[in-house]
Design goal:
Elements (H helix, E strand, L loop, with lengths): L7 H13 L6 H20 L11 E3 L3 E4 L3 E9 L2 E6 L10 E8 L2 E12 L3 E9 L1 H15 L3 H4 L1
Antiparallel strand pairs: 1-3, 2-3, 2-5, 3-4, 4-7, 5-6, 6-7
Helix pairs in contact: 1-2, 1-3, 2-3
Length: about 160
């Protein structure tokens, strides 16, 4: 497998800056972060087993969420392009319904819109259709933080 064009240490540093949001990243910082993010995502997906491969990596991540019009929930996992929500009662939405979600990520509220791709007795999957670019970066950085343990194995 080809090695990444950035070091794990450099990527972790930039990833932490995205998550903390304490200061803006310079264009150079952002380029390092995006390079590392893309490499980690590609290698994670290449390493997946089975027939149902995802288009975006996902990580087990439980955070508070609010499903608009339906109440509190929390995430089972989050990915670059979607998430799985666990609701406190039977999911009120069905496949194809629009969904609006607020997540609490690293002291920030992230708002996204999407559509339900699947639902079962207590969970539902949402494909993200709309999210602010800064919020998308934060969401991706949170996923990358959970996937970093794979960096050395993927190298």
């Amino acid at each position: 497998m080809p090695t990444p064009r950035v070091t794990r240490r450099a990527f972790e540093e930039k990833n932490r800056l995205v998550i903390d949001g304490l200061r803006g990243l310079t264009p150079e910082d952002l380029e390092v972060w995006e390079t590392g993010r893309d490499w980690l995502a590609r290698r994670t997906l290449d390493g997946e087993q089975g027939t149902a491969r995802r288009r975006h990596p996902r990580a087990r991540l439980a955070v508070q969420a609010y499903l608009a019009g339906h109440g509190g929930a929390f995430t089972d996992d989050i990915g670059f392009g979607g998430l799985a929500l666990r609701t406190h009662r039977k999911p009120p939405l069905q496949r194809g319904d629009e969904a609006y979600v607020r997540l609490r990520l690293s002291r920030h509220s992230v708002y996204l819109s999407g559509r339900v791709s699947w639902a079962d007795a207590s969970r539902l999957g949402i494909v993200i259709d709309g999210i602010h670019p800064g919020d998308a970066r934060l969401l991706q950085a949170m996923v990358c933080e959970k996937l970093l343990h794979r960096w050395d194995r993927l190298n």
